[in-house]
Amino acid sequence: MPRLLFAVTTDLNYDQRMQRICGSLAGQGYTVLLVGRELPQSLPLTPQPYQQHRLSCWFTKGKLFYLEFTLRLLAYLLTQRAAVWCAIDLDTALPVWLRARLGGQPFVYDAHELFTEMPEVVRRPAVQWVWRQVEKFIVPRASLAYTVGPALAAVFRQRYGRTFEVIRNISRLTVEAAPPVPNNSLILYQGVLNEGRGLEALLEAMPNVRGQLVLCGEGDLSVELRARAAQLGLLASGKVSFRGYVLPAELRQLTRQARVGVLLLENRGLSYYYSLANKFFDYLHAGVPQVVIDFPEYRALNAQCPVADLVPDLQPAALAAALTRLLPGGDEAHYQELADNCRQVRTTLNWQQEEMHLLALYDALLPGQVPPTSTRNS
Questions:
Q1: CA distance 209 to 325
Q2: DSSP track, 297-330
Q3: Which of 162, 287, 292, 351 has the fewest CB atoms below 10 angstroms from its CB?
Q4: CB–CB of 32/6 below 8 Å?
Q5: Quick one: 90 exposed, middle or buried, by C-beta within 10 A (0-12, 13-18, 19+)?
Q6: Counting beta carbons within 10 angstroms of the beta carbon of residue 38, is it exposed (0 to 12), middle (13 to 18) or buried (19 or more)?
Q7: Counting beta carbons within 10 angstroms of the beta carbon of residue 198, is it exposed (0 to 12), middle (13 to 18) or buried (19 or more)?
Q8: Strand ranges (DSSP E) for the chain?
Q9: Residue (of 243, 244, 257, 242) closest to 203 by Cα position
Q10: 132-174: per-residue pLDDT in tens?
């Protein structure tokens, strides 16, 4: 069977996008290997229908990490064979492109984000210049390129004059044994605790919100956010709790118990402004209304069928008012309308629909090598 190799810098246990992509391609009959990163706190790999391998590094962040991971990834790739080599974002692109070039095989670029416009890159002009040179080199050389939303695809097309396909990071539709039973006061944030995620403003809003905020994830601001929550008395009162890393299966169960989800981003670069985050779809599929920043992709989806309340900015007072409206004692009729819309729209907005486009792209990339059996419609 044709072998597809994907490379990321994430811990594979928590990368739901790659679990969906690799799982769908493995189900189509391809042999798939996903290469990622092993952190000091990483748990054993969870079983998946594809092969997995993690690389350990001495450094965990910064320039030295990227340099070390690039060299380790290249060394590993030189020991592997594949029919297609796929880089996930710019931080894996150079070694994956080089390995594909050495083998004369297709190179695929999967842009989870607009890497050169991430907040931590934008605020450092010299670093941004370096990554832009990498992007200018990589993007024109990809046999296939795709990203997570139409707006980001348009930015790439404008920059490089080439087609970027769209594979949205949408949850898989599942048949639940029973409808969700939301905790009457649980407000859920899922994702990394990094700058530009609106988390500082969210904590400032919580003293004026009758609810409990649960944050699932870790990141560069883990220590600072916990310290600020303690200063505000939110940890001692139980109004805020940090769950750390949560495996996908457990996170799905927790999401179904939530009353409200939050997706708050700051306009610190085009990557966030044009984002289409997986948590938007995770909340939607759990039947959970959400408070979302009013950015183009979320505005467009919400205009088709309202599943969220959009906020124009991240002022704590505005966030508190939006959350209060969706919590008990707020606008119950409005809340139920959003929840009903979630359950309705997920029947058409789901991974089963999205993966058909993904499979068609890879089938076209390997003419004459498509696996003889297909589970595409199973």
A1: 10
A2: HHHHHHHHS--EEEESS--HHHHHHHHHHHSTTS
A3: 162
A4: yes
A5: buried
A6: middle
A7: buried
A8: 3-7, 31-38, 51-56, 84-88, 107-111, 144-147, 165-166, 186-190, 212-216, 240-244, 260-263, 290-293, 308-311
A9: 242
A10: 999 999 999 999 999 999 999 999 999 999 999 999 999 999 8
DSSP, collapsed to helix, strand or coil, labels residue 55 as strand
Say how far residue 223 (Cα) sits from the centre of its chain.
22
Residue 202 DSSP symbol: H
**The CA-based dihedral angle spanning residues 129, 132, 133, 139, taken in that order and rounded to the nearest 10 degrees:** 180
Integer Cα distance of 341 and 239 in angstroms: 28
Pairing of strands 212-216, 51-56: unpaired
b/e per residue 114-135 (b: at least 16 CB within 10 A): bbbbbbebbeeeeebebbbebb
**Cβ contact 288:342 at 8 Å:** yes
Q: What is the pTM of this model?
A: 0.91
Region of residue 189 (left: phi > 0; alpha: psi -120 to 50; beta: else):
beta
Q: What is the mean pLDDT of residues 11-30?
A: 96
Nearest CA to 110 out of 153, 71, 78 is that of 153
Segment 242-280, tens digit of pLDDT? 999 999 999 999 999 999 999 999 999 899 999 999 999
Nearest CA to 115 among 7, 5, 269? 269
Which tokens sit at 104? Answer: 């004369």
Give the Cα separation of 93 and 107 in Å (integer). Answer: 9
Q: How far apart are CA 234 and CA 115, in angstroms?
A: 34
Q: Is 158 exposed, middle or buried (0-12, 13-18, 19+ CB in 10 A)?
A: exposed
Q: Indicate the pLDDT class of residue 377, thresholds 50, 70 and 90.
A: very low
For tokens 């695929």, the residue is: 108
**Locus of tokens 């629909």:** 353
Q: What pLDDT, on the 0 to 100 scale, is given for residue 372?
A: 56
Nearest to 217 by CA among 277, 299, 127, 147: 277
The encoded tokens of residue 69 equal 């991971």
